[in-house]
Amino acid sequence: MSVDAQTVRRIAHLARIAVGDEDVPPLQGELNAILSFVEQLGAVDVDGVEPMTSVTPMAMKKRADAITDGGYAGDIVFNAPLTEDHYFLVPKVVE
Amino acid sequence: MTDLSKTPAELTDLTLAEARDGLRRKDFSARELAQAHVDAVAGARALNAFLLETPERALAMAEVADRKLAAGEARPLEGIPLGIKDLFCTHGVATTAGSRILEGFQPHYESTVTHNLWRDGAVMLGKLNLDEFAMGSSNETSAYGPVVSPWRRRDSQTPLVPGGSSGGSAAAVAARLCLGATATDTGGSIRQPAAFTGTVGIKPTYGRCSRWGTVAFASSLDQAGPITRTVLDAAIMLTSMAGADPKDTTCADLPVPNFEAAVSRGVKGLTIGIPKEYRVDGMPAEIERLWQQGAEWLRSAGARVVEVSLPHTRHALPAYYIVAPAEASSNLARYDGVRYGLRVPGKDIAGMYENTRAAGFGREVKRRIMIGTYVLSAGYYDAYYVRAQKIRTLIKRDFEEVYAAGIDAILTPATPTAAFGIGEKADADPVEMYLNDVFTVTVNMAGLPGIAVPAGLDAQGLPLGLQLVGRPFDEETLFSAAQVIEDAAGRTVLPPRWW
């Protein structure tokens, strides 16, 4: 399978990465090189094989459903580019 | 006393174990040791190994260490100066992951691995350069420029890569800027740079070290480990880094073994497997020779060496380039210009996301996010992602069958070539760079421990390494066998200072 220029733009939009017109041809070539490299996996017999979900056999650790952490909103928003009263600020999304 | 004192160069030439013992004997102070390393770091900026130097913090930590040493309360790594890969979040110290998108980010928390090192008395020299978000095999994808290896080809001044993604860690350890460094390994990022720089690097079993507070690349593959100059030093450092952590549900609730004691255990009675599938086309004859030499060293030390088969080996690298980008595309969705790092305005919120990520991520990171987005998208998920996860099951099963048949560890080359020049692969397609990890990536796919240990030099005078792969949570056997190779090969003579 290979991707065309339109697919490259669609993937970039899904990934929320702006691409200029000049970025599309090189990206298309690079993505197709990777896709053609992984194409060989189509020949592997995977009938009856379960997909891996955990690399080491382990039961998910659980803890009591209790509040164990929190109370430092200032630390949480410390690195945000734009904040007000411990809220993250984003451009208007609802009219 | 004066005739016993060491010069700064003698202090930075010590191994971690020698420095630890010297501090306890009061041969020198933690402050002298820290100052010698702070000066070595400042004198090696040409290598670009450090993204951030923290000399004041190093000297302050060394003063605490001297008080502990004087009081006879030395902790396991008391006064040992270390470098920290800039993928580990450090409280109040900028953490970039080698990316523009995290420029200026100051974590208000400490990663569990670094927390454990400071708990045990280690001293922080600064943050080490790396491939952007640990995506690379040469340290050339760092937004802050490539790292230059302290190694050069014989009679040549061509700058070489130290490997990647833990290129700053490997270069700093090889150049004697620190006694050890933290590193991380998703597909070979500890073992490949260790092999390229004549240092020792171990990726422990998935779950041995907590991933909490380490910037995530591919969560089912990422593991932290040390890069050091000797096998013993790696055992000492991993003992402090590892351990259960309630903050990471994938971190194993297992006690940390006495890795240091395992180093001198030898290999008598062990069975070492040589996987025939690791004999790849175009592998240089000297790597093949070194591999046979390694097998011979282990045999001479009392191990039984047998050929084994891992039939799905060749599928590991392509399957990795589906699984790792898929996980990366999901993990890196958090860099959106809202909570931390760079923000570039747009015409609406989606435009802000797109502009921020376009400006903040480098080419390799964008490529991998886009591949990951594609293989997870509707219509392709089964054909790519689910198939790759099934192949991952087959790769792991190969190892399980070999270990069930009585093999204790597997010996392979660490890399298919020695280090290459900076920029030499710039015009190649991305897959050529990915081939660097052909021998290491299987180990991540199966969650196993793997260690790279220096085994000799090639015809151009560059280091080559061997890799040992162990059973899950049996790093001890890797330390035992790696020490046999280190003893037989002799400690690598590191390059003299030219920088």
TrEMBL record, chain A:
Heterotrimer of A, B and C subunits. Allows the formation of correctly charged Asn-tRNA(Asn) or Gln-tRNA(Gln) through the transamidation of misacylated Asp-tRNA(Asn) or Glu-tRNA(Gln) in organisms which lack either or both of asparaginyl-tRNA or glutaminyl-tRNA synthetases. The reaction takes place in the presence of glutamine and ATP through an activated phospho-Asp-tRNA(Asn) or phospho-Glu-tRNA(Gln). This is Aspartyl/glutamyl-tRNA(Asn/Gln) amidotransferase subunit C. Belongs to the GatC family. Gene3D superfamilies: Glu-tRNAGln amidotransferase C subunit, N-terminal domain. Keywords: ATP-binding, Ligase, Nucleotide-binding, Protein biosynthesis, Transferase. The keyword Nucleotide-binding applies. It comes from Methylobacterium oryzihabitans. Pfam families: GatC. Its EC number is 6.3.5.-.
